[in-house]
Amino acid sequence: MQQYYTLHVAGLTRELPICSVSDTLDIAAFIMFSDVELTVASAKEIIKKAPPCDVLITAESKGIPLAYEMARQMGIRYVVARKSVKVYTIDPIEVEVQSITTKGSQKLYLGRDEVELLNGKRVLIVDDVISTGESLKALETLVEKAGGKIVGQAAVLAEGDAADRKDIFYLEKLPLFFK
Ligand SMILES: O=P(O)(O)OC[C@H]1O[C@H](OP(=O)(O)OP(=O)(O)O)[C@H](O)[C@@H]1O
Ligand SMILES: Nc1ncnc2[nH]cnc12
């Protein structure tokens, strides 16, 4: 039978389905897509903790609604690091990324327009979850390549050991489930 983890975040409660990552590890899947109420409330709470910044960056895909909503509330722009190059991606820069939810390695790309938005700016990196930190590391590398200055790294949830990191801020911890 499907099992759930009860999450309290930003004044809301959600039941997260427990999903298998491997023979030894399960995660509670945190998917903000579709959940406008949770996205708006989480954005508001992260903004309260955020340092002054000029632009946000997130990774495709689950960080996008959060970055959009934070940028809307803050009145600033946001950049999405894409997982593929499109016909309209001019002069892409790239970095390799691995994530706890995806087998094998992927890449994150920024086009020239996104690089221009980041260059010389105070950049806040945002994501829905920070777990192994690999996605965050890839975003850091991209911001540095683009000539941006990272002023903070934020997430709604810090999963597993990420909760002990001192270089990020987040709203709630999320446990990993070892089998
Ligand atoms: O700290 P990490 O281990 O890198 O995990 C965190 C990343 O994993 C998730 O994305 P995912 O790779 O599942 O891709 P998706 O957003 O496209 O579903 C999440 O949105 C973060 O970007
Ligand atoms: N618990 C989780 N739910 C969704 N995506 C994730 N990426 C890393 N941990 C995750």
UniProtKB/TrEMBL annotation:
Q: Which GO terms describe its molecular function?
A: adenine phosphoribosyltransferase activity
What are the entry keywords?
Glycosyltransferase, Transferase
Q: What is its EC number?
A: 2.4.2.7
- The record places domain Phosphoribosyltransferase at 54-167
InterPro entries registered for this protein in UniProt: PRTase-like, PRTase_dom
Record flagged with keyword S-adenosyl-L-methionine? no
Tell me if Transmembrane is a UniProt keyword of this record. no
In terms of SUPFAM superfamilies, this protein maps to: PRTase-like
* Annotated protein name in UniProt: Adenine phosphoribosyltransferase
